[in-house]
């Protein structure tokens, strides 16, 4: 039974470790899922912003020649040209600054994509590691349970054999007692009941003497 206690203790430890690993796996899965969701949402937002900016700067108006419009000043500027850029519906931003903004967004997009890719790899690795640990633990538990069942079966068989042997021993003892009792009876009849030769001669002499005495008494009475 000591072996069974040891195996049962080991099984309890294995199940405890598997339970802890299951909880950690659930936490990892939740955390990684959140990272992937946030990185995907961030990447989608950056892609949208990039598309808007690229379209905006792509269609930007770039003046290639010097042209002096009517009613312009000596530098060729009209009132519209001198108005703040925010009021000009044809303002398309600074082309030089556009490259920097797009570049920053592209870096941010790359970071989001890299984060998402790493989260997916981590999720796959976490899942595979947990499944391997779970299988190994369950296999170990099954082996130990098999050993316990086998030991219990052997113990049950041993107890059954001992009981059979005890029953057989009891039956043999009863037979021995009966045999001894019968032997004592035979000894009383065959051995102790048999007279020796000297005993038989003495007995015969005693009978003859008794007959003589009886005869003498009879003769005296008749006289």
Which class best fits the helix and strand makeup?
mainly alpha
Largest sheet: none
> Which ranges are low-confidence, i.e. pLDDT below 50, for 5 or more consecutive residues?
61-74, 78-95
Query: How many distinct domains?
Result: 1
Average of pLDDT: 76
| Number of helices, where a helix is a run of at least 4 consecutive DSSP H or I residues | 4
Cα separation of the termini: 102 Å
Q: Strand percentage, roughly?
A: under 5%
As a percent range, the share of helical residues equals over 70%
Describe the oligomeric state of these chains in a short phrase: single chain
Spatial shape: rod-shaped
- Number of DSSP strands? 0
Structural Rg: 59 Å
Order of helices and strands: HHHH
Could you write a compact summary of the structure shown?
The protein is an all-alpha fold.
Provide a descriptive summary of the structure in words.
The protein has 223 residues and is mainly alpha-helical. It has one domain. 83% of the residues lie in helices and 0% in strands. The chain contains 4 helices and no strands. It has helices spanning 2-58, 79-82, 95-192, 197-222. The chain is rod-shaped. Mean pLDDT is 76; it is low at 61-74 and 78-95.
Fold topology:
Elements: H1 2-58, H2 79-82, H3 95-192, H4 197-222
Keywords:
223 residues
């Amino acid at each position: 039974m000591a072996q069974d206690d040891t195996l049962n203790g080991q099984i309890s430890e294995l199940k405890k470790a598997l339970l802890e690993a299951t909880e950690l796996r659930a936490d990892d899965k939740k955390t990684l899922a959140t990272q992937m969701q946030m990185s995907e949402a961030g990447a989608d937002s950056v892609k949208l912003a990039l598309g808007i900016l690229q379209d905006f700067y792509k269609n930007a108006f770039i003046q290639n020649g010097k042209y002096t419009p009517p009613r312009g000043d000596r530098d060729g500027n009209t009132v519209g040209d001198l108005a703040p850029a925010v009021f000009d519906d044809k303002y398309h931003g600074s082309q030089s600054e556009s490259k920097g903004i797009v570049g920053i967004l592209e870096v941010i997009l790359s970071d989001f994509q890299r984060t998402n890719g790493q989260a997916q790899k981590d999720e796959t690795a976490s899942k595979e590691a947990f499944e391997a640990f779970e299988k190994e633990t369950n296999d170990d538990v099954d082996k130990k349970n098999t050993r316990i069942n086998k030991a219990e079966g052997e113990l049950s068989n041993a107890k059954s054999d001992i009981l059979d042997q005890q029953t057989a021993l009891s039956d043999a003892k009863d037979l021995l007692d009966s045999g001894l009792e019968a032997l004592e009876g035979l000894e009383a009849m065959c051995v102790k009941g048999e007279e020796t030769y000297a005993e038989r001669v003495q007995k015969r002499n005693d009978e003859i003497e008794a007959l003589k005495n009886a005869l003498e008494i009879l003769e005296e009475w008749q006289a």
